[in-house]
Amino acid sequence: MDIQQEMRNEARRLLESGEVKVVIGYEQGSTAFKCTPAFVESSDDVDRLIWSPACTNNLATYLPQEAKEARAAIVAKGCDVRSIIMMIQEKQVDRSNVHIIGVPCAGVVEATALESGDFRLDDIRGISWDGGKFAVQTVSGNHSLDRNAVVKSACKTCGYPVPTQADTMIGGEEAAQISATSESGFAMPESMEERRAYWAKQFEKCTRCYACRQACPGCFCKECFIDRIVPRWAAKRAGASDAWMFHITRAMHNAGRCSQCGECSRACPVGIPVHELAREIERHVAELFDYTSGMEFGGDPALGTFKAEDPDPSHG
Ligand code: SF4
Ligand code: SF4
Ligand code: SF4
């Protein structure tokens, strides 16, 4: 049985038994290569749910709202599960109100990457993974593209494509064939000067639309510091120095919470690799506190606890 059918069967079972009020998953978007979040509340509607390489959103962002009053099931890839665990640890979601439907993930595609293909986007009728290759079915025939040419940037370095935790794990056969990847086209500049120059150039492009923040499950503050009037942390107008303030503060607030889902970078309309900044912070959190976000339900978040022997690099 394929993953999509397994997912629909499990959604039907959960809704008919009354175990959950809603199943959060994906449904077909405006084209054959786009998906959109779906909120299925009746077993009559489970056939809306789909599974495809276009299922890119990290649906964990919807949990605080959907699992507040009643129990919700959520379709979750490896990175999404880590975000869900983080949100439970951070007390944004009650564990007893969540049923995780874990799905193994071979990577999700950047819709914009398909523009480089040898076909018209309007002609695409379907997309799928075919072994390690990305298959595109069009009106004029089938095409095969390299994985790294089309996957979301974060998927190139994904360490946990198969969910580490789930209440129901589906796609067992596919999971056995998926392994973590490590190729990245991105290299953080070595020296401080080069880093500053690199990110200054990136932040010059930032329009402060906050799409990256909205897409991120780690950004759950009821009022973001950047929106506050008193105290005012940054001017309302777009500008490089205020963009620095926003990005560096967001990165620090998110330390120990990032699952490397890459949704912040995908959401950015001007192509700033926001998740690479978060990845660098997570690298430091792992080094300093031996902590990787979203691995276990129990325990405290890295920055939500304090031990006298914790390292403090600022004091040598
Ligand atoms: S980061 Fe990993 S789990 Fe998340 S979408 Fe990419 S490959 Fe899948
Ligand atoms: S910072 Fe970016 S990569 Fe990390 S959890 Fe948030 S959206 Fe995902
Ligand atoms: S999505 Fe891009 S442009 Fe918008 S605030 Fe984030 S980094 Fe800036």
Question: Can you walk me through this structure?
Answer:
There is one protein chain. This protein has 316 residues and is α/β, with parallel strands linked by helices. It folds into 2 domains: 3-114 and 157-177, no CATH class; 192-315, no CATH class. Helices cover 29% and strands 14% of the residues. The protein has helices at 3-16, 63-66, 78-89, 147-150, 172-177, 192-204, 211-215, 240-253, 263-267, 274-289; strands spanning 22-28, 35-40, 72-76, 98-102, 124-130, 133-138, 141-146, 168-169. The strands form 2 sheets. The chain has a 5-stranded mixed β-sheet with strand order 2-1-3-4-8. Strands 5-6-7 form a 3-stranded antiparallel β-sheet. Helix 6 (192-204) crosses helix 8. The model has no long low-confidence stretch (mean pLDDT 92). Bound molecules: iron/sulfur cluster (SF4) (3 copies).
Keywords:
316 residues, alpha/beta, 2 domains, 5-stranded mixed β-sheet, 3-stranded antiparallel β-sheet, 10 helices, 8 strands, 14% strand, globular, binds iron/sulfur cluster
